[in-house]
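testing teh design pipeline on a random one, pls ignore if ur not involved
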């Protein structure tokens, strides 16, 4: 259980260094980190320097907090995250969300790479997350209750902000992007799923599958933040394409190929939320 003092220590460290009063923070998932290069008046802080921040051990995750100005507003971009499959607890992978809350951040944009489960999706699609399913993992809020970060029991009926979703849809439309919408299904990894698991996920209502995001979204909701989630469909999930295999190479290559288009869309959304 992480005590309140740890979050406070981390927030106090960052408050001395970042551009003041950030309202929005953006988490850039696998291979999607280049948006952080567009900030002005930048301060870059490696996660390893920030007290309490878990270190991402995955190559495609830079592990860098970037504070700067984006469309005239202070913002924080987090390039890379840690995952439960690396051995961290749900509470640890969401550590930074509570720190952001202490810094005054009230809007959190979460991005990720995900496998397409909905058979009408294509590799290269972007999916606006409308909701998520996380059945098989514990809550990041499990254990000792810290009232500074919200209620003991909290509502997730509108976890992914309807207001921000409308803005995202409008931005996609303006750019001629066909934006998919759907339910993100969390799986713990690090192995990709079996074809039978993917069929089960589809039956249960999942449209995309991935190994991140849900703990951070839940933690943000508990803190009262508005959350937007966007998935990049980097591959079709296991068993959908006959005789093909799911690989990290495909995930990172697709993410790299899409990163410019993704950045363009996210830039517009972030500037309007
Ligand atoms: N499964 C789980 N996580 C993923 C996938 C997938 O197919 N693609 C990208 N992240």
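output:
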């Amino acid at each position: 259980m992480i005590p309140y003092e740890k979050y406070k220590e981390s927030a106090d460290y960052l408050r001395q260094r970042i551009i003041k009063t950030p309202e929005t923070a953006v988490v850039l998932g696998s291979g999607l980190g280049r948006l952080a290069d567009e900030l002005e008046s930048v301060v870059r802080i490696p996660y390893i320097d920030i007290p309490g921040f878990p270190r991402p051990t995955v190559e495609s995750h830079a592990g860098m907090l970037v504070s700067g100005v984006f469309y005239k507003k202070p913002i924080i971009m987090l390039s890379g995250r840690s995952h439960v499959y690396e051995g961290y607890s749900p509470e640890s992978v969401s550590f930074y969300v509570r720190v952001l809350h202490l810094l005054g951040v009230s809007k959190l944009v979460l991005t990720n790479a995900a496998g397409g489960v909905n058979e009408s999706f294509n590799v290269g699609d972007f999916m606006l997350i409308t909701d998520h399913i996380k059945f098989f993992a514990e809550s990041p809020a499990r254990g000792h209750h810290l009232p500074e970060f919200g209620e003991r029991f909290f509502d997730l009926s509108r976890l992914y902000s309807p207001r921000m979703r409308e803005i995202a849809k409008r931005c996609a439309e303006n750019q001629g992007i066909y934006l998919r919408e759907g339910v993100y299904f969390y799986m713990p990894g690090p192995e990709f799923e079996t074809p039978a698991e993917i069929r089960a996920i589809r039956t249960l209502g999942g449209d995309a599958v991935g190994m991140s995001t849900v703990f951070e979204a839940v933690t943000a909701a508990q803190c009262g933040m508005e959350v937007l989630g966007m998935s990049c469909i980097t591959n079709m999930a296991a068993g959908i394409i006959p005789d093909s295999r799911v690989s990290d190479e495909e995930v990172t290559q697709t993410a790299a190929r899409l990163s410019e288009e993704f950045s363009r869309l996210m830039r517009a959304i972030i500037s309007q939320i």
